[in-house]
Amino acid sequence: MNRSQMRVFARRSAMQALYQWQLTGYNLTEIERQFVEEHGLGHGDPAYFNELLHEIPKNLDTIDAAIGEFTDRPIGGIDPVERAVLRIGAYELLYRAELPYRVILNECINLAKTFGSAQGHKFINGILDRIAHKNRAIEIAAFSKNSD
To answer: CA-to-CA distance for 98 and 36, rounded, in angstroms?
Structure first.
């Protein structure tokens, strides 16, 4: 499994763990322990899973504000799967500048297609695209210039 595939697995596991945290409010360390024991993270990137699981709640106010700026409903009114995916995408867009924005959007759209509602991926794409345009304008402009 290459690094990219390991990150995909880590995101997928983190999305499921964040979903559980959102619904239950359980302790993050306990959720992490459960995921490691029951799901095994040997195929993924355990350090990245850990980062997403702990840093997203730590930076929740900033992440939710970035999402809330581009949605017409309160963050709590967003489907829990889509909320977890949006939080991962927003976190990566805001805090992981080394990850290309197009990779982040693509990965989150794929998560939404796999776990979310039928049209949830379109909602995810729209919100994350707007966050990217606001926070990664230079990267987007460079990509657009190179694509022409």
So the answer is: 26
Tell me, what CATH number does 101's domain have? 1.10.940.10
- Give the count of domains, the chain: 1
Residue range(s) defining the domain that contains residue 53: 3-147
Collapsing DSSP states into helix, strand and coil, what is residue 109?
Answer: helix
Which DSSP letter does residue 42 get?
A: T
Q: For residue 43, is pLDDT > 70?
A: no
pLDDT tens digits, 70-114: 999 999 999 999 999 999 999 999 999 999 999 999 999 999 999
